[in-house]
Amino acid sequence: MPVLSRLVTHSYYRLSVGGAKVPATGPVLVVANHTNSLMDPALIVVAGGRTLRFMAKAPLFTYPGIGWLVRAVGSVPVYRRQDNPRGVRQNFDVFEDVHEALAQGYALGIFPEGTSHSASGLQPLKTGAARIALGAAQRIGHAFPIVPVGLVFRDRRTFRSSARVIVGEAPVWDDLAARGADDKDAVRELTRRIETSMRAVTVNLQDWSDEQLVHCAARVWHAEFGGGDDLGSDVERVRLTTEALARLRAGDDHEWRHVARALRGHDRLLARLGLTPETLHLQVTREAALLWLLRRIPLLLLLPFALAGLVLFWIPRELTGHLGALAAKKEGEDSVPTFRVFYGAVIFLVWFLFLAMGASTVAGPLVGIATFLALPAVGFAALTVSEWRRLSWHEIRRFWTLRFHRDRVAELRDRQRALAWDLRALFEAASNGS
User: For the segment 140-159, what is each residue's pLDDT rounded down to a tens digit?
Assistant: First the structure.
């Protein structure tokens, strides 16, 4: 259901997709990290651009309010020992089904970690993905693409926060394809290759408290030394920074602690001034400011949509957030966006009907129908204008700082340059010591 997945994910997140491409035809096994419950499959479908069948834990098929959707998208149940020890034997038939599906050219999605989680990094992979691939390869007669997908969130719970989907390069496993799923050494080796490919497109922090430090260091590096601007390059910088930090912590040189404190302070100061490591180097002129202002004039005309959305949709928005967080307590923090999406779909539909009925009572049935049809468009327009307004305010703060606090900006540029060179020295030392 690519269209529905695109609607849901782009509504909840500010979504970016980058990296390689999932093959449009033929058998494909898509493997991804799993930190966001049922939102993760929808994100993968958007990245893949084709219909995928997913391996899902069996309890989801009977979960109230969600089971119907899990079944509707053609998911395949996986029986886990912790859910029902007696059901594990049914996995033999499940594997037979997915082997046949891949042999017929379908695309299959699987989360090799085995469960959705809230950990700060990739969890040890189960061997299911490797066994599925090796079993299917025997039927097909050769290896086929196993495509890693990395799902990267800065704040997955928050509505309209950023989400990035990175499609990686498929690992080479032609040398293992003929050995079959019963060859334990082949299963272990393919699992290792799959994990390596997944780590290349995911951010794996030792602890969530490292997130601000790692992202700030990666952005300072990019601002001062350059590098690619695409999503893949950004994730790669964060990944390498995370690995370098882990090596520094394991060593005897504690100089990194001083640099870490300086980086955190630099990041906080930039945030207060409305700047980032990249925008700190921008040069602003009066002409550029005037051009920016002229481009924002249409925004003033659309502000009534934002105000209408704030008034009309405040009640369902607050109710959705509260009920979604409440329902997620049983399943875990990683399921908050999933429940907010499902509750939001129902609550907003009921709210639209309520407003349309009110309009129909006051002005007649035709007005009621027109109101019901127009409300979703008004909602999306209000959401868009609100984001433009927020971004415009950040740009105004940035312009003011760069234009009227030049001495302070120059000092910050010098400090950032020095921090970047300190980082380079530390990373080089860590690399030489590894």
Answer: 999 999 999 999 887 888 88
Q: How many domains does the chain have?
A: 3
- Nearest Cα residue to 71 out of 87, 81, 58, 90: 58
User: Do residues 173 and 234 both lie within one domain?
Assistant: no
Residues 6+ apart with CB under 8 A from 242: 203, 204, 205, 206, 210, 214
Q: What is the pLDDT of residues 345-380, one digit of tens each?
A: 899 999 999 999 999 999 999 999 999 999 888 888
Query: In the numeric block, which tokens belong to residue 81?
Result: 């020992």
CA 424-426-247 angle, to 5 degrees, is: 125
Are residues 148 and 245 both part of a single domain?
no
- Quick one: 160 and 246 in the same domain? no
| The model scores a pTM over 0.70 | yes
Residue in 180, 156, 157, 152 with CA at minimum distance from that of residue 168: 152
Please provide the DSSP assignment of 323-344 as one string. HHHHHHHHH-GGGHHHHHHHHH
Write out the residue range of the structural domain in which residue 250 sits. Answer: 208-273
Strand pairing of 28-32 and 146-153? parallel
Note whether 301 and 383 are same-domain residues.
yes
Same domain, 181 and 263: no
